[in-house]
Amino acid sequence: MPHLWLLICLGSILLLSVLSIFVGVIDLTPMALLRDPEALQLLVVSRLPRTAAAVLTGCSMAVSGQIMQILVRNKFVEPISAGTGQAAALGILLSVLLFPAAGLAVKMSLAAVTALLGTLGFLALVQRLPPTEPLLVPLVGLVYGGILGAVMVFIAYQADLIQYIDVWMLGEFSGVMRGRYELLWLAGIAAFVSYLIADQFAILGLGRDMSLSLGLNHRQVMAMGLLCVSLVSALTVVTVGMLPFVGLIIPNLISRHLGDNLRVTLPVTALLGGVFVLGCDILARVVRHPYEVPVGTIFGVLGTLAFLWLIYARPRHA
Amino acid sequence: MIRIRNVGHQIAGQSILQGVDLDIPQGGLTALVGPNGAGKSTLLSLVARLQTLQSGQIEINGRDLGQISHGDLAQLLAILPQVLTSTHRISVQDLVGFGRYPYSRGRLGPKDREIIADVLESFELQEIKHRFLDTLSGGQRQRAYTAMAWAQDTEYLLLDEPLNNLDIAASRSLMSRLKTLAAQQGRTIVIVLHDINYAAGYADHIVAMKAGRVETAGPPAEVVSEAFLRAVFDTDARVILEEERPLVVV
Known about the structure:
Chain A is an all-alpha fold. Chain A contains 14 helices and no strands. Chain B has one domain: P-loop containing nucleotide triphosphate hydrolases (Rossmann fold). In chain B, helix 5 packs antiparallel against helix 6. With 250 residues, chain B is of the alpha/beta class. Chain B has 10 helices and 12 strands. In chain B, the strands form 3 sheets. In chain B, strands 6-7-8-3-9-10 form a 6-stranded mixed β-sheet, sandwiched between helices. In chain B, strands 2-1-4-5 form a 4-stranded antiparallel β-sheet, covered by helices on one side. Chains A and B meet through helix 9 and helix 10 of A and helix 2 and strand 6 of B.
């Protein structure tokens, strides 16, 4: 069963990638690629990077969502709406204010640090919530993320940077070009590294006491998870902006159908995340052709529906 | 043998354990009984190092507990905590496989697979091995978790109230399975129980705790009496003898 899913996802990614390469404002046909050097240029500079960015973002965010859910031990959270994403954006804003001349690497590093702090803050909050009320966790996450977001908007307003922050608040891929998306490969690597210790994350999901009894280095695995979640969030927010819900819907869908043995399911989660984001991005490009709808808007619509479905369809096993 | 000397524990300024001295003998089933809040679970979690020892000393097989590495401890002692609600959807077989983590570090070898198959067999989980935990009944889930702890193949196994939420059939079957397996494989099981009759009926050794101290310890026939119930549980209940085992009339 997981193998079938894996094959279907892989096939869909290939298919959608081909589609993604040939869908856009400028017509591009397979024949033109062979004859026209400008068409080839378009492919290499814009279409291929955009396709890769969507796939990488989807894969790494689905994985980081899954890991966040294990760290918090609640299936209804994901980094982008529970404070990690907002904290990362806050970090970018601070780096713009404090080190205006600094490059992408500095922005990215500061974003990773604030994302880490933001996630730690959320974990500290969640530990004080009664375990009998699992739905409090995502609600507190939304409020917490909202507060961090408000702090950012306030600072941006004071510094006259409101238009600037929109770029990170509403994620989209239209700005992706060669030379401006490569950081996302790091996010992909972070996701792959967490797959290497998937067993340990699966055991972590059994809870602190059980994982200690099994001889797991609980603190170390928690730290690895935090690092992965913060890095992926920071990298994606810096390069394409906040894309909510991917980290929520995909892991839950996989969990429901294939279970939570991460060694088996994590690759499927990653690939399905890629399929979902790439598919939404293509949709964003064709819905109002030749104009584009931000892909975050499409996520918002689909994600809200999916979130409601998740809450109402399975309250018992929350 | 587990040697506990002068162990004290405080949580938020409140004394949970004080001056606990206890030897848990090697082999067989030791039942930890006592009223709610007596400190049974805390003592168990200190022995399993789920909480840091605040004062006193605990030795396992002559080695100081604090000196044993994570990896070594997981091959020597396993604990099954009380609350087994997990949001995780794991199949029974995979869960039992996690029990091999201290040896396999996630890469199951042929010996691990053999042990997993054995444990699934002896805990009668073969037929439900592909089911997810959240689709099981309370009794089946408890059995699956116990099987996981069993697969850890440790000399000592600590179980915190495994009979919670189990009906009489599931309780009896789990207790007799544990007793048989412990005897067959020469393992030591320490089990927190609420029902004195299960302790008297299955344990080789009873340890009674009250208000953070050990009240009495010994074989069931010597420990369980009407005076004992009054002293430890503050209740007047009749105790009769049934095939030389004490039985509390509730």
